[in-house]
Amino acid sequence: MNEGQFMPVPVIDVSSAANSGTYEEFATFYTGDPNVTNTFSECGILSFCVGSRQATPDRIRIARQLLADRADVNEK
Fold first, then answer.
1. Which of 32, 44, 57, 66 is deepest in the core (most CB within 10 A)?
2. Domains contained in the chain, number
3. Is 32 part of a structural domain of the chain?
4. Is residue 49 included in any domain, yes or no?
5. Is residue 6 part of a domain?
6. What end-to-end distance do the CA atoms of the chain give, in Å?
7. Consecutive sets of 10 residues in the chain, 76 residues long: mean pLDDT of each?
């Protein structure tokens, strides 16, 4: 891995899919609750998604889905 690159989280659940998966992987795990517990961090899955440093079309689509489902934008 080159300097400045990061190791993506393996996709094993909704949290990891929000951080580094495709929209399809995210949809596999997502139950419609945008405020589920993040298994990798104390922040919510919306913050985990947008904080992933990957502004890919999938990440944007996941963030939009979470916002449409009324994710708490003030969560820590």
1. 66
2. 1
3. yes
4. yes
5. no
6. 30
7. 60 92 96 91 88 84 96 84
